[in-house]
Amino acid sequence: MRLDDEQESSHFEVQSGRGGGLGGGGLGMLLPLIGSRFGCGGIAVVLIILVVMGVNPLSLVGGGGGQPAQTERPSTGELTDVQRTSLKVLGSTERRWADIFKAEGQQYPPPTLVFYSQNGQSGCGAAQSAMGPFYCPADQRIYLDTDFFREMETRFNAPGDFPIGYIIAHEVGHHIQTVTGEADRIRKAQQRASEAEGNALQVKMELQADCYAGVWAARDTNLMEPGDLEEGMRAAEAIGDDTLQKAAGRRPVPESFTHGSSAQRMQWLRKGLSTGDPDQCDTFNGAI
Ligand SMILES: [Zn+2]
Predict the structure, then answer these.
(1) Distance from the CA of 226 to the center of ligand 1, in angstroms?
(2) Residue 141 CA, ligand 1 centroid: distance in Å
Protein backbone atom coordinates (compact mmCIF):
# COMPACT_ATOMS: atom_id res chain seq x y z
CA MET A 1 0.00 0.00 0.00
CA ARG A 2 1.20 3.51 -0.76
CA LEU A 3 0.42 5.33 2.46
CA ASP A 4 3.24 7.88 2.63
CA ASP A 5 1.00 10.80 1.72
CA GLU A 6 -1.88 9.74 3.96
CA GLN A 7 -2.56 11.78 7.07
CA GLU A 8 -2.91 9.66 10.21
CA SER A 9 -6.36 9.74 11.80
CA SER A 10 -6.58 11.57 15.10
CA HIS A 11 -9.43 9.31 16.22
CA PHE A 12 -7.54 6.82 18.35
CA GLU A 13 -6.82 5.75 21.90
CA VAL A 14 -4.25 3.46 23.49
CA GLN A 15 -5.32 1.25 26.37
CA SER A 16 -2.67 0.25 28.84
CA GLY A 17 -2.80 -1.92 31.94
CA ARG A 18 -4.73 -5.13 32.31
CA GLY A 19 -8.42 -4.97 31.79
CA GLY A 20 -10.62 -7.26 33.86
CA GLY A 21 -10.20 -10.62 32.17
CA LEU A 22 -13.92 -11.12 31.75
CA GLY A 23 -14.58 -7.46 31.08
CA GLY A 24 -17.66 -5.34 31.71
CA GLY A 25 -19.32 -6.60 34.86
CA GLY A 26 -16.85 -9.51 34.77
CA LEU A 27 -17.23 -12.27 37.27
CA GLY A 28 -19.59 -10.14 39.34
CA MET A 29 -22.21 -10.53 36.63
CA LEU A 30 -21.32 -14.07 35.66
CA LEU A 31 -21.46 -15.72 39.08
CA PRO A 32 -25.14 -15.06 39.82
CA LEU A 33 -25.92 -16.46 36.37
CA ILE A 34 -23.92 -19.62 36.98
CA GLY A 35 -25.42 -19.86 40.46
CA SER A 36 -28.98 -19.66 39.14
CA ARG A 37 -28.34 -22.42 36.62
CA PHE A 38 -25.97 -24.77 38.42
CA GLY A 39 -26.28 -23.78 42.08
CA CYS A 40 -23.44 -22.90 44.40
CA GLY A 41 -21.57 -26.03 43.30
CA GLY A 42 -21.28 -24.44 39.85
CA ILE A 43 -19.81 -21.27 41.32
CA ALA A 44 -17.29 -23.27 43.36
CA VAL A 45 -16.21 -25.19 40.24
CA VAL A 46 -15.67 -21.95 38.30
CA LEU A 47 -13.65 -20.44 41.15
CA ILE A 48 -11.49 -23.56 41.40
CA ILE A 49 -10.86 -23.53 37.64
CA LEU A 50 -9.84 -19.87 37.81
CA VAL A 51 -7.44 -20.50 40.70
CA VAL A 52 -5.94 -23.50 38.89
CA MET A 53 -5.50 -21.28 35.82
CA GLY A 54 -3.61 -18.83 37.99
CA VAL A 55 -6.30 -16.15 37.95
CA ASN A 56 -7.13 -14.36 41.17
CA PRO A 57 -10.95 -14.47 41.16
CA LEU A 58 -11.12 -11.28 43.21
CA SER A 59 -9.37 -9.43 40.40
CA LEU A 60 -12.29 -10.28 38.13
CA VAL A 61 -15.07 -9.01 40.37
CA GLY A 62 -16.06 -5.57 39.06
CA GLY A 63 -13.43 -3.17 40.36
CA GLY A 64 -12.42 -5.49 43.22
CA GLY A 65 -8.64 -5.25 43.11
CA GLY A 66 -8.34 -5.46 39.32
CA GLN A 67 -6.41 -2.75 37.54
CA PRO A 68 -8.79 -1.01 35.16
CA ALA A 69 -7.45 -0.45 31.68
CA GLN A 70 -6.26 3.11 31.28
CA THR A 71 -6.82 5.08 28.15
CA GLU A 72 -4.13 7.35 26.81
CA ARG A 73 -3.71 9.60 23.81
CA PRO A 74 0.02 9.62 23.00
CA SER A 75 1.33 11.64 20.08
CA THR A 76 1.62 9.68 16.85
CA GLY A 77 5.43 9.93 17.14
CA GLU A 78 5.25 7.57 20.14
CA LEU A 79 3.39 4.88 18.22
CA THR A 80 4.77 1.75 16.59
CA ASP A 81 5.02 1.40 12.81
CA VAL A 82 2.02 -0.95 12.66
CA GLN A 83 -0.04 1.47 14.74
CA ARG A 84 0.89 4.39 12.48
CA THR A 85 0.06 2.35 9.37
CA SER A 86 -3.28 1.46 10.94
CA LEU A 87 -4.01 5.15 11.60
CA LYS A 88 -3.08 6.11 8.05
CA VAL A 89 -5.53 3.49 6.80
CA LEU A 90 -8.17 4.80 9.21
CA GLY A 91 -7.51 8.36 8.04
CA SER A 92 -7.91 7.23 4.44
CA THR A 93 -11.23 5.48 5.23
CA GLU A 94 -12.46 8.69 6.92
CA ARG A 95 -11.79 10.76 3.80
CA ARG A 96 -13.29 8.22 1.39
CA TRP A 97 -16.44 7.58 3.43
CA ALA A 98 -16.88 11.30 4.14
CA ASP A 99 -17.01 11.80 0.34
CA ILE A 100 -19.58 9.03 -0.08
CA PHE A 101 -21.78 10.36 2.74
CA LYS A 102 -21.45 13.93 1.45
CA ALA A 103 -22.70 12.85 -1.98
CA GLU A 104 -25.88 11.74 -0.15
CA GLY A 105 -26.07 15.05 1.70
CA GLN A 106 -24.92 13.46 4.97
CA GLN A 107 -22.03 13.84 7.36
CA TYR A 108 -19.83 10.86 8.18
CA PRO A 109 -19.30 10.26 11.90
CA PRO A 110 -15.90 8.49 12.10
CA PRO A 111 -15.24 5.62 14.53
CA THR A 112 -12.38 5.62 17.06
CA LEU A 113 -9.59 3.04 16.86
CA VAL A 114 -8.50 1.60 20.22
CA PHE A 115 -5.12 -0.14 20.45
CA TYR A 116 -4.75 -2.58 23.29
CA SER A 117 -2.37 -5.33 24.28
CA GLN A 118 -3.67 -8.82 25.14
CA ASN A 119 -6.43 -7.70 27.50
CA GLY A 120 -8.54 -4.65 26.96
CA GLN A 121 -11.97 -3.34 27.80
CA SER A 122 -14.63 -2.39 25.30
CA GLY A 123 -18.18 -1.13 25.47
CA CYS A 124 -19.12 -4.68 24.38
CA GLY A 125 -17.20 -6.50 27.15
CA ALA A 126 -13.65 -7.83 27.30
CA ALA A 127 -11.28 -7.29 24.41
CA GLN A 128 -8.87 -10.18 24.12
CA SER A 129 -6.23 -10.75 21.48
CA ALA A 130 -7.61 -14.23 20.72
CA MET A 131 -10.79 -12.54 19.45
CA GLY A 132 -8.99 -10.73 16.64
CA PRO A 133 -9.91 -7.18 15.68
CA PHE A 134 -13.56 -6.27 16.20
CA TYR A 135 -16.01 -3.38 16.08
CA CYS A 136 -18.20 -2.55 19.06
CA PRO A 137 -21.44 -0.84 17.96
CA ALA A 138 -22.25 0.27 21.53
CA ASP A 139 -19.28 2.67 21.73
CA GLN A 140 -18.59 2.89 17.97
CA ARG A 141 -14.97 1.85 18.45
CA ILE A 142 -12.71 -0.57 16.62
CA TYR A 143 -10.56 -2.68 18.97
CA LEU A 144 -7.20 -3.81 17.70
CA ASP A 145 -4.47 -5.83 19.35
CA THR A 146 -1.60 -4.92 17.06
CA ASP A 147 0.07 -8.30 17.74
CA PHE A 148 -2.75 -9.71 15.61
CA PHE A 149 -1.05 -8.64 12.40
CA ARG A 150 2.12 -10.45 13.40
CA GLU A 151 0.04 -13.53 14.09
CA MET A 152 -1.68 -13.16 10.74
CA GLU A 153 1.65 -13.26 8.97
CA THR A 154 2.86 -16.34 10.77
CA ARG A 155 -0.28 -18.33 11.45
CA PHE A 156 -2.50 -17.49 8.50
CA ASN A 157 0.31 -17.05 6.00
CA ALA A 158 -1.10 -13.75 4.71
CA PRO A 159 1.87 -11.36 4.75
CA GLY A 160 2.10 -7.87 3.30
CA ASP A 161 0.69 -4.56 4.41
CA PHE A 162 -2.54 -4.62 2.43
CA PRO A 163 -4.15 -7.11 4.87
CA ILE A 164 -3.85 -4.35 7.54
CA GLY A 165 -5.83 -2.08 5.27
CA TYR A 166 -8.36 -4.76 4.44
CA ILE A 167 -9.00 -5.69 8.08
CA ILE A 168 -9.34 -2.12 9.33
CA ALA A 169 -11.54 -1.21 6.35
CA HIS A 170 -13.67 -4.31 7.10
CA GLU A 171 -14.22 -3.12 10.69
CA VAL A 172 -15.01 0.36 9.36
CA GLY A 173 -17.56 -1.46 7.16
CA HIS A 174 -19.31 -2.64 10.35
CA HIS A 175 -19.30 0.97 11.53
CA ILE A 176 -20.99 2.02 8.27
CA GLN A 177 -23.63 -0.68 8.86
CA THR A 178 -24.19 0.72 12.33
CA VAL A 179 -24.53 4.39 11.39
CA THR A 180 -26.81 3.60 8.44
CA GLY A 181 -29.08 1.49 10.67
CA GLU A 182 -28.46 -1.67 8.62
CA ALA A 183 -26.88 -3.48 11.59
CA ASP A 184 -29.93 -2.77 13.76
CA ARG A 185 -32.30 -4.06 11.10
CA ILE A 186 -30.32 -7.31 10.82
CA ARG A 187 -30.11 -7.79 14.59
CA LYS A 188 -33.89 -7.50 14.82
CA ALA A 189 -34.33 -10.02 12.00
CA GLN A 190 -31.90 -12.37 13.78
CA GLN A 191 -34.01 -12.30 16.93
CA ARG A 192 -36.93 -13.76 14.98
CA ALA A 193 -34.80 -16.27 13.05
CA SER A 194 -33.68 -19.85 13.71
CA GLU A 195 -30.01 -20.42 14.54
CA ALA A 196 -29.15 -21.43 10.96
CA GLU A 197 -31.01 -18.41 9.54
CA GLY A 198 -29.35 -16.16 12.11
CA ASN A 199 -25.92 -17.43 11.06
CA ALA A 200 -26.80 -16.86 7.40
CA LEU A 201 -27.69 -13.23 8.17
CA GLN A 202 -24.42 -12.85 10.09
CA VAL A 203 -22.50 -14.14 7.05
CA LYS A 204 -24.26 -11.55 4.85
CA MET A 205 -23.26 -8.80 7.31
CA GLU A 206 -19.64 -9.92 7.16
CA LEU A 207 -19.59 -10.19 3.37
CA GLN A 208 -21.07 -6.71 3.09
CA ALA A 209 -18.28 -5.40 5.35
CA ASP A 210 -15.78 -7.13 3.03
CA CYS A 211 -17.39 -5.42 0.05
CA TYR A 212 -17.24 -2.03 1.84
CA ALA A 213 -13.52 -2.65 2.45
CA GLY A 214 -13.15 -3.12 -1.31
CA VAL A 215 -15.07 0.14 -1.95
CA TRP A 216 -12.60 2.03 0.22
CA ALA A 217 -9.58 0.56 -1.57
CA ALA A 218 -11.12 1.25 -5.00
CA ARG A 219 -11.70 4.91 -4.14
CA ASP A 220 -8.20 5.52 -2.83
CA THR A 221 -6.60 5.36 -6.25
CA ASN A 222 -3.15 6.34 -4.92
CA LEU A 223 -3.18 3.52 -2.45
CA MET A 224 -2.99 0.32 -4.43
CA GLU A 225 0.40 -0.99 -5.50
CA PRO A 226 1.14 -4.00 -7.69
CA GLY A 227 0.58 -7.13 -5.62
CA ASP A 228 -1.86 -5.48 -3.16
CA LEU A 229 -4.89 -7.12 -4.73
CA GLU A 230 -3.27 -10.54 -4.42
CA GLU A 231 -2.29 -9.82 -0.79
CA GLY A 232 -5.86 -8.82 0.01
CA MET A 233 -7.26 -11.90 -1.69
CA ARG A 234 -4.83 -14.11 0.20
CA ALA A 235 -5.93 -12.52 3.46
CA ALA A 236 -9.61 -12.93 2.54
CA GLU A 237 -8.94 -16.55 1.70
CA ALA A 238 -6.95 -17.20 4.87
CA ILE A 239 -9.68 -15.97 7.21
CA GLY A 240 -12.66 -17.64 5.49
CA ASP A 241 -14.64 -19.83 7.88
CA ASP A 242 -14.09 -23.01 5.86
CA THR A 243 -10.32 -22.48 5.79
CA LEU A 244 -10.25 -21.71 9.54
CA GLN A 245 -12.39 -24.77 10.33
CA LYS A 246 -10.18 -27.02 8.21
CA ALA A 247 -7.06 -25.56 9.83
CA ALA A 248 -8.62 -26.45 13.20
CA GLY A 249 -8.98 -30.05 11.98
CA ARG A 250 -12.73 -29.91 11.48
CA ARG A 251 -14.88 -30.63 8.46
CA PRO A 252 -16.34 -27.32 7.24
CA VAL A 253 -20.01 -27.00 8.18
CA PRO A 254 -21.57 -24.18 6.14
CA GLU A 255 -24.52 -23.66 8.55
CA SER A 256 -22.08 -22.78 11.30
CA PHE A 257 -20.25 -20.18 9.20
CA THR A 258 -20.49 -16.69 10.59
CA HIS A 259 -18.11 -14.87 8.24
CA GLY A 260 -18.51 -16.68 4.93
CA SER A 261 -16.34 -19.10 3.00
CA SER A 262 -12.99 -18.07 1.53
CA ALA A 263 -14.52 -17.95 -1.96
CA GLN A 264 -17.39 -15.72 -0.76
CA ARG A 265 -15.08 -13.34 1.09
CA MET A 266 -12.80 -13.00 -1.93
CA GLN A 267 -15.80 -12.51 -4.23
CA TRP A 268 -17.29 -9.65 -2.18
CA LEU A 269 -13.98 -7.92 -1.55
CA ARG A 270 -13.44 -8.05 -5.32
CA LYS A 271 -16.93 -6.70 -5.99
CA GLY A 272 -16.25 -3.62 -3.85
CA LEU A 273 -12.82 -3.21 -5.43
CA SER A 274 -14.08 -3.43 -8.99
CA THR A 275 -17.09 -1.11 -8.56
CA GLY A 276 -16.11 1.36 -5.80
CA ASP A 277 -19.84 1.66 -5.24
CA PRO A 278 -21.38 0.82 -1.83
CA ASP A 279 -24.77 0.28 -3.49
CA GLN A 280 -23.25 -2.81 -5.14
CA CYS A 281 -22.64 -4.29 -1.67
CA ASP A 282 -26.20 -5.48 -1.13
CA THR A 283 -25.51 -8.98 0.15
CA PHE A 284 -29.00 -9.26 1.62
CA ASN A 285 -31.03 -9.45 -1.56
CA GLY A 286 -30.25 -12.21 -4.02
CA ALA A 287 -27.67 -14.96 -3.89
CA ILE A 288 -24.30 -14.46 -2.20
ZN1 LIG B 1 -16.55 -8.62 10.57
Answers:
(1) 26
(2) 13
Taking the centre of ligand 1 as the mean of its atom positions, its distance from the CA of residue 134, in whole angstroms, is 7
Task: For residue 124, report the distance from its CA to the centre of ligand 1, in Å.
Answer: 15
Question: What range does the domain containing 196 cover?
Answer: 12-281
The string of DSSP codes covering 36-94 is HHHHHHHHHHHHHHHHHTT--HHHHBTTSS----EEE---GGGS-HHHHHHHHHHHHHH
Q: How much distance in Å is there from the Cα of 5 to the middle of ligand 1?
A: 28
Any domain includes 103 = yes
In a domain? residue 221? yes
Whole-number percent of the chain with pLDDT over 70? 81
Q: What angle do CA 99, 101, 104 make, to 5 degrees?
A: 110
The CA 74 to ligand 1 mean position distance, Å, reads 28
Ligand 1 centroid from CA 204, angstroms: 10
Global pTM value = 0.78
Give the number of domains in the chain: 1
- The predicted structure's pLDDT at residue 62: 41
Q: Are 183 and 155 in contact (CB under 8 A)?
A: no
pLDDT, tens only, 52-106: 454 544 444 443 334 567 888 888 888 988 899 999 999 999 999 999 999 999 9
CA distance 57 to 55: 6
The answer to whether the beta carbons of residues 288 and 204 sit under 8 Å apart is yes
